[in-house]
Amino acid sequence: MSDPLMENDDVETMILDSVEKWLERDVRPHVLRFDHGDEYPLEMVEQMKELGLFGATIPEEYGGLGLSATTYAKVIEKIAETWMSLTGIMNSHLIMSSCVSRMGTDAQKQKYLPRFATGEIRGGLALTEPDCGTDLQAIRVRAVRDGDDYVVNGTKAWITNGIEGSCYALLVKTDIDAEPRHKGMSMLIAEKGEGFEVTHKFDKLGYKGIDTAGLTFIDYRVPVENLIGGEEGRGMQTALGGLELGRINIAARGCGLASAALKDSVAYSQVRQTFGKPICEHQAIQLKLGHMATNLEAARLLTYAAAAAHDRGQRCDMEAGMAKYFASETAVENSLEAMRIHGAYGYSREYHVERYFRDAPLMCIGEGTNEIQRMIIAKQLIERNPV
Ligand SMILES: Cc1cc2nc3c(=O)[nH]c(=O)nc-3n(C[C@H](O)[C@H](O)[C@H](O)COP(=O)(O)OP(=O)(O)OC[C@H]3O[C@@H](n4cnc5c(N)ncnc54)[C@H](O)[C@@H]3O)c2cc1C
């Protein structure tokens, strides 16, 4: 079995090199402008299409790059180190794609995956509603069969790529009386059209540039052929399967942010002087740097271990949960420590550090909150170690 830390074959090296060059040339110089203006990075999205990033984990037979979860995690870490928002534009799109590639019918795969891979159709995952996020079985968006269509009514909230995207994996109730409740849930491929309305853009603390929107469906019709897998009652299973890769993505984003916070702190602490010497020579700062670096390394190891388990085709909800939990908390901690190390400048919008501090908490919420991750880990521990 290959060690994911050693896996650095030619394809991976080539992809990581191209991504790094793109980030340095076309992204890093513009991040503060886009972040502060909360402006959607249209040109960067076009460049991401050219790099093939919208097909990163889509199988090669459908025109994607077919990257392993391990290589994908490394790409995401690199991008998040520069600007975390861009990873969100890819991630929810790729979760939608993974819902189709894992659970879709052959016709759905043929129709959608090649267009997802090029980025011609982009979109995301529409699960959350105004009244429920964690408790997904309580969703109220309803799809009622009418001839060859489903008629959809209801409201989704917090949908990433909701404004700029055009197609969504939409979780709906097809049977409101089913018990257990998940048996009444289905997933539709929902392209924007009549009755599909974007109601508003959420104004967020961080994660700027990328659109997060409310969606309302009023007698919106979806052809029955867009029911993922062609069978009702598999919506929850479809959503949860996609979230394993989603959690590896969030863990990798956490590593990227934690790494950026550490790198900036290592550099700044060597140039800022107090009491006649660089602050990196004060023990109080060294303790912070030592702690930040150690936690970052641990977060990376957990992330690669989860990605390797995913690549081996193993169930990895515990591993992905641990990686997501630890890496996101490390991102929060490292970004706060970086702010302290930078003193007043850490509180200034002229530096990236205050952005890390605003971006990092999202990793503790998205793809299942960290409270829920710890419960998933505990349940798996018990299941894997019966007495
Ligand atoms: C910027 C952003 C982008 C997002 N993008 C998307 C997207 O693209 N698609 C999408 O579908 N959703 C998206 N979301 C929504 C996100 O997935 C939810 O916010 C998340 O699942 C938590 O749901 P909630 O906010 O409703 O919190 P709630 O479920 O209301 O939870 C509130 C608190 O209670 C805790 N809690 C809940 N249940 C339990 C329990 N059983 N035991 C212990 N603690 C519990 C939670 O951990 C949390 O601390 C996004 C959110 C944000 C902020």
Give a summary of the structure in a few sentences.
The chain has 387 residues and is α+β, with helices and mostly antiparallel strands.
Give me the side-by-side strand order of the main sheet. 2-3-7-6
Strand % is: 5-15%
CATH class of the largest domain: Mainly Alpha
Roughly how much helix do the residues carry, as a percent range? 40-55%
Bound molecules: flavin-adenine dinucleotide
Q: What structural class do you assign from the helix and strand content?
A: alpha+beta
Uncertain regions spanning at least 5 consecutive residues? 1-7
Integer average pLDDT: 96
Spatial separation of the terminal alpha carbons: 30 Å
CATH architecture of the largest domain: Up-down Bundle
Biggest sheet features: 4 strands, antiparallel
Helix-strand string: HHHHHHEEEEEEEHEEHHHHH
If helices are DSSP runs of H or I spanning 4 or more residues, what is the number of helices?
Answer: 12
Describe the fold and architecture.
By secondary structure, this protein is an alpha+beta fold. 51% of the residues lie in helices and 15% in strands. It has three domains: 10-118, Acyl-CoA dehydrogenase/oxidase, N-terminal domain (Butyryl-Coa Dehydrogenase, subunit A, domain 1, Orthogonal Bundle), CATH 1.10.540; 123-233, Butyryl-CoA Dehydrogenase, subunit A, domain 2 (Beta Barrel); 237-384, Butyryl-CoA Dehydrogenase, subunit A, domain 3. The chain has twelve helices and nine strands. The strands form three sheets. Strands 2-3-7-6 form a four-stranded antiparallel β-sheet, with helices on one face. A three-stranded mixed β-sheet has the order 1-4-5. It has a two-stranded antiparallel ribbon with strand order 8-9. Helix 8 (283-311) runs antiparallel to helix 9 and helix 9 (317-341) runs antiparallel to helix 12 (370-384). The longest helix is centred in the middle third of the chain and has 37 residues, at 235-271. It is globular. 50% of the residues are buried. Mean pLDDT is 96; it is low at 1-7. Bound molecules: flavin-adenine dinucleotide. Residues 92, 124-128, 132-134, 158-160, 204, 207, 212, 362, 365-366, 369, 371-372 line the site of flavin-adenine dinucleotide.
